């Protein structure tokens, strides 16, 4: 029979997995408490970084329907539960790992899809959601401007063609 405190921890972790859009597993061996505090701040407001017990977290992930992380639960493990923009949190982890090589990104999950450590680093290289949306809006606006120019050019080209035909007819008609 499971102890009530362990059952409560599994239930809390399961809820965190379900409420997160992404979760990133890291190994934090060799980091000080002060460094972990700095890491938590660098992840932003939409992520929670928690040092976890492997067995309980594995059970919680499986209960949440995430079975792709089972191989990553070895050694000292901490999980970054991301509820907001996963790119921002991935950048925070990548940048912190550059300065502190003791932080090792093991892998993670994004919207139910397993991610390797390399895929998380690629995710960190993306621009933020707001920047990508503004670029998309700019591209749509540019295409609309091009379409408007084309639609405007058609009637004016037609008018010039009709005027040229009239002038040619008048020239031919006046010569006879």
From TrEMBL:
Signal peptide as annotated in the record: none
Q: Which UniProt keywords apply?
A: Ribonucleoprotein, Ribosomal protein, RNA-binding, rRNA-binding
Source taxon at top rank: Bacteria
SUPFAM superfamilies, per database record: Ribosomal protein L10-like (SSF160369)
Please give the GO cellular component terms listed in this UniProt entry: ribosome
For this protein, the record's Pfam families field holds: Ribosomal_L10
Is Ribonucleoprotein given among the entry's keywords? yes
The family classification in the record reads: Belongs to the universal ribosomal protein uL10 family.
Q: How does it assemble?
A: Part of the ribosomal stalk of the 50S ribosomal subunit. The N-terminus interacts with L11 and the large rRNA to form the base of the stalk. The C-terminus forms an elongated spine to which L12 dimers bind in a sequential fashion forming a multimeric L10(L12)X complex.
Q: Which PANTHER family match?
A: 39S RIBOSOMAL PROTEIN L10, MITOCHONDRIAL
Q: What does this protein do?
A: Forms part of the ribosomal stalk, playing a central role in the interaction of the ribosome with GTP-bound translation factors.
**What is the official name of this protein in its record?**
Large ribosomal subunit protein uL10
Q: Which organism is it from?
A: Streptomyces anandii
């Amino acid at each position: 029979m499971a102890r009530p405190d362990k059952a409560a921890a599994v239930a809390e972790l399961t809820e965190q997995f379900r409420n997160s859009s992404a979760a990133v597993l890291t190994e934090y061996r060799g980091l000080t408490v002060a460094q972990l505090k700095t890491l938590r701040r660098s992840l932003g407001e939409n992520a929670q970084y928690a040092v976890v017990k492997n067995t309980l977290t594995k059970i919680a992930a499986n209960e949440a329907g995430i079975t792709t992380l089972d191989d990553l639960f070895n050694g000292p493990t901490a999980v970054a539960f991301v509820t907001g923009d996963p790119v921002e949190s991935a950048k925070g982890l990548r940048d912190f790992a550059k300065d502190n090589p003791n932080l090792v990104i093991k892998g993670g999950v994004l919207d139910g899809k397993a991610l390797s450590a390399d895929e998380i680093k690629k995710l960190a290289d993306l621009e933020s959601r707001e920047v990508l949306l503004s670029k998309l809006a700019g591209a749509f606006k540019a295409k609309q401007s091009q379409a408007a120019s084309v639609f405007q050019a058609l009637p004016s080209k037609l008018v010039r063609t009709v005027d040229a035909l009239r002038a040619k007819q008048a020239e031919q008609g006046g010569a006879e």
